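Sync notes, pocket subgroup
Present: LS, DG
LS reminded everyone that the earlier model was apo-only. Rerun requested with zinc ion included. Inputs:
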Amino acid sequence: MTAEMAKDQVRIFDTTLRDGEQSPGASMTLEEKLQVAEILDDMGVDIIEAGFPIASNGDFESVREIARRAKRAVIAGLARAIHADIDRCGEAVRHAERGRIHTFVSTSPIHLKYQMNKTEEQVLEIITDTVTRSRNLIDDVEWSAMDATRTPLDYLCRCVEAAIKAGATTINLPDTVGYATPDEYRQMFVDIRNRVPDADKAVFSVHCHNDLGLAVANSLAGVAGGARQIECTVNGLGERAGNAALEEIVMAIRTRGDVLPYVCNVEPKYLMRASKLVSAVSNFPVQYNKAIVGKNAFAHESGIHQDGMLKNAETYEIMRPEDVGVKATSLVMGKHSGRHAFKDKLKELGYELGDNALQDAFRRFKDLADRKKHVYDEDIEALVEDEIATAGEGAKVIALTVIAGTGGPQKAILTMDIDGRHETREATGDGPVDATFKAIKAIVPHDARLSLYQVHAVTEGTDAQAEVSVRLEANGRVSTGKGADTDTLVASARAYVAALNKLSLRQQALNPGALKAV
Ligand code: KIV
Ligand code: ZN
């Protein structure tokens, strides 16, 4: 690679598993984090921020396990400017072929006064001390100036200088509160890189939050100002309004190479799969009109657009859907499709199921094809995701009858399988969903609180499958479950039970003494 090309290479640093996971309710299990890390690694993300090791034993475990399994990516862990954090982080990432400690401290006057209660001079000493400690553990050290965009430039220059002198190899200047505009953000990088001695010894990095909807624009502006690392998340998941969306950054760079002369290592074909996976495990649905990965991102409804598309796709499309892993929706699967075709279709959609799961999924597909005129790829995906989520150990929904309508109260009669034993209960409620959830509670008594109930239609039409997300909370633990069915109430019951199984309430229900402890 020539020096010129290397200069224009932009590193993609994904923080879905750290900043993304910090979104309220987006917490993921170890297994889910491993799946996300695997696809990020496969797609060519340069650095994966796998978590915040000091936050909990679970976080430590997942960073360590991701570090062990990573094939190509650098694995980073986050650490506050505290020795215990840095040591714990070093311990987790040292298992990676290439590990990184990412340590940060606030630099803005408002953070220093209200959050840190420290003077500027004290923070400068902290930077030198903590970056030095990190460098004693590992060669690859990133230092971040939290709230950099609200930090006076002169002081920010002194902080960056101290971090580079202590050995930081990457300097990240986050727009922590999503306050900057593109011009300001670009200029900040130009000024800092011009003024700080030895600035060329470090790679500069952007990290933008989306409070004003400017995260991607600001990130690209920072790169124009000399940054060569972009911190971002799949689907823009992240604190408050989220972080810059990885898929938007990658496709902007690829599509507008004429004015954005950079390259990155991410293979765009993985973008849609990564988006779906992150949406499923975080339970944050992707808005239909979301750039690149939204359901409508490549859909054309108006007659004029459709006419243009039929003549030449470039009339209304600046990217090809297949480039980001979006396949044209197909209608080929139906009630006459056999097991073989179904298995092939699953393979095409990226699923490989074991024999039992395949048999169950096929039975459900046939059942769906009997009830639904067209079975789209999205229907099959929803069905398989539901199968995966509800397979294995745990309580299962066997049958549900609901009496609903204006008469009230609405009534649900539910049968569930609990360890091979069928139990049936009736419950009334304020609406059919409430009655269904009360029937579940009658069979599996628990104290969990329902904190989210969301329904969306997988495809169009009144026979569309409903995909329901349920989030339950008990004693500070959060779990989410999904269910899909053409019957919204059956999907709701499945989602609730999947979340309940994750909370392990079933075992405790069998041992009512333990139940209240959940
Ligand atoms: O937004 C922010 O400032 C951060 C830092 C921890 C890098 O996420
Ligand atoms: Zn952040």
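DG: Residues 111 and 147 are 8 Å apart (CA to CA).
LS: Confidence is low (pLDDT under 50) at residues 1-6, 506-518.
Action: DG to write up.
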